[in-house]
Amino acid sequence: MTMKIDRSRSDQTVVITVKGEVDLYTSPDLRSAIMKAVRKAKAHVAVDLAGVEYMDSSGVATLVEGFKSAHEQSKTFTLVAPSDSVMKVLQLAKLDGIFEISPAP
Amino acid sequence: MNYDIRLEVRSDPRLLGLIRNLVHDWVDRFELSHDLVHEVVLAIDEACSNVIRHAYEGRADGTLEVRLQEEPEYLEVEVRDQGVPCPPECHERRLLEQPDSDELQPGGLGVQLIHRVFDEVIFCPGKERGNCVTMRLRRDR
Description:
The structure holds 2 protein chains of 2 kinds. Chain A has helices at residues 27-40, 57-72, 84-92; strands at 3-9, 13-22, 44-55, 76-80, 100-102. By secondary structure, chain A is of the alpha/beta class. Chain B has a single domain (5-138), classed as Heat Shock Protein 90, CATH 3.30.565.10. A 5-stranded antiparallel sheet of chain B has the order 1-2-3-5-4, with helices on one face. In chain B, a hairpin with a 5-residue loop joins strand 4 and strand 5.
């Protein structure tokens, strides 16, 4: 499995669900999905990372870019239930305190 | 020198997962914690990604070499390429303690992760082409 992205949309929120491995090869697709979600969402973007088995710094940079873009448009950007693998790379990068993180819905 | 493993692959990002799997199986033999095994795999993946992004500027037809060697005191990893020599400042360790979100710039994070994981990182750009990054992890951690 490399990476799989699903999208769902409600009135105010776009949810991106990511599964598999996020690395230099797959992160451009994640970036496209997140930036599109930021544009389309009326108020909230949620990125469900429970199913992410691996994430490198290009994935982290993608999340940072989405976070910054959402805030520039006065929208919220939330990481939902990040897997252990995601939390480890965020902690190693000292970026776990930057993001709003919520448990699984 | 006979390395435990000497892997030569094309600079194709689709092959990074294969490198990670091999590195994981090699590192996992040394009774390191689960977290440290994950961090070592991540750091080596970052070094390989940097070769593809910077030394080969995204080209998939370059040569990427990973050498893994067990020494009594440490584990040594070398990542080599034949691409554009990167300026030494690309590999400098910078202070990035709890960055503010306004200061965050995508890119450069991979090098910082490498420095956070390994005890010693030596970067040797070639004069005309190629780079070599040597990373050492003490075994008594």
